[in-house]
């Protein structure tokens, strides 16, 4: 099918876009379009006006510092994935981006757009929540910053007001002695995950586990992060299967696996258990490897 | 109902500039086929899943059905027609698909050819696994993919041979 007719406008500056969006009724912001255009084509959504922000130069920037990664609303998934400094400062970003759709979709789709699409089956909304990211939204009324709990208020629903444009996202750097991992299981490569899990594990100065947080994809209505510290904190060396099983059960108590055409709720729950164990162990190994590496180098060499 | 809004669009396709007047809702895939007559780009699912409409946007594989023509004006578009040499001879990717029987009905082929053309530019010596990964976003219902994977590897060989000759 084809989209219903709409008007089109391509502002050259953010100020122009904000004014146009404030004045329009039933307008939508377009950047990568890899979710919006299928919705329009299948007529699950329609707009009176599409405001294309791809011409706004300042929204295409990636800025990497010791504190983290900041990227604008037209930065493509593939831009972030190809950026070496991004991977060095926050390795969770490329680890998760590899699982976002196919390379062809990543060439056009934007990471900020994916986050504000707020699909709990998408990888990047969960990563945004897991890393305590901050979203900048702007309107003619001003600017505000939102964290995941304020942003995600329902399935595919955010707290953005009708005149607010998501302009950039900041994801903090990975802290010292921390490690990450991301994995998911899908019916076919590049499909939506039946279940996806990302984990961040932190170690104390003696190498024992100090913190474990995991974010979940496709098993809740909104992107959900669970603190898995209780069964795991204090562990050192090989993590026991019992502790990982307990972590999986703890995670499930915060999630709502549902049945659909692709998987039963029971199977999804089993995938939560299996992937939690696998990903937490991988993130722990990553934390150990990073701690060992940074001990071998002067602390000021790390940036 | 008011008359639909029309807009002038300049598309640069295979190095040639085209001026068309279309509605903003005109998909790039439809603009290529209906307005420019470049019917090499095929339209399958029309929502980004099948990969048949894949074209190169500034050299990067992109779904033509997930872009509006009006938003494609800043880029150099390459369709399957643009892969063929000016003298009409086949490019390494096209030759490899022919040699290795990388197609049967041919419907999905334009999307594979554009994707693989960009893929072996980025990775000139893919392993079999990398070849499979390269084509993971394109569906083929005839071949079972084995001959397509062989075609990717052969295309890389042909391309490497050519760059040696020209060196």
Keywords for this entry:
heterodimer; A: 303 residues; alpha+beta; Uridine Diphospho-n-acetylenolpyruvylglucosamine Reductase, domain 2; 3 domains; 14 strands; globular; B: alpha+beta; Ubiquitin-like (UB roll); DNA polymerase, domain 1; five-stranded mixed sheet; 5 helices
Detailed description of the structure:
The complex is a heterodimer of chains A (303) and B (167). With 303 residues, chain A is of the alpha+beta class. Chain A has 3 domains: 7-52, Uridine Diphospho-n-acetylenolpyruvylglucosamine Reductase, domain 2, CATH 3.30.43.10; 62-170, Uridine Diphospho-n-acetylenolpyruvylglucosamine Reductase, domain 3 (2-Layer Sandwich); 178-293, Enolase-like, domain 1, CATH 3.30.390. In chain A, 34% of the residues lie in helices and 25% in strands. A 5-stranded antiparallel β-sheet of chain A has the order 4-5-10-6-7. In chain A, strand 4 (62-65) and strand 5 form a beta hairpin. The longest helix of chain A is centred in the last third of the chain and has 31 residues, at 265-295. Chain A starts with 6 loop residues before the first strand and ends in an 8-residue tail after the last helix. Chain B has 167 residues and is α+β, with helices and mostly antiparallel strands. Chain B folds into 2 domains: 7-82, Beta-grasp domain (Ubiquitin-like (UB roll), Roll), CATH 3.10.20.30; 92-162, Orthogonal Bundle (DNA polymerase, domain 1), CATH 1.10.150.120. Chain B has a 5-stranded mixed β-sheet with strand order 2-1-5-3-4, sandwiched between helices. In chain B, helix 2 packs across helix 5 and helix 3 packs across helix 5. The radius of gyration of chain B is 16 Å and the shape is globular. Chain A binds chain B through residues 1-8, 10, 30, 33-34, 37-38, 40-42, 50, 52, 54-55, 78, 101-105, 107-108, 189-190, and chain B through 4-5, 7, 23-25, 27, 30, 46-48, 51, 54, 57, 60-63, 65-68, 70-71, 74, 115, 133-134, 136-137.
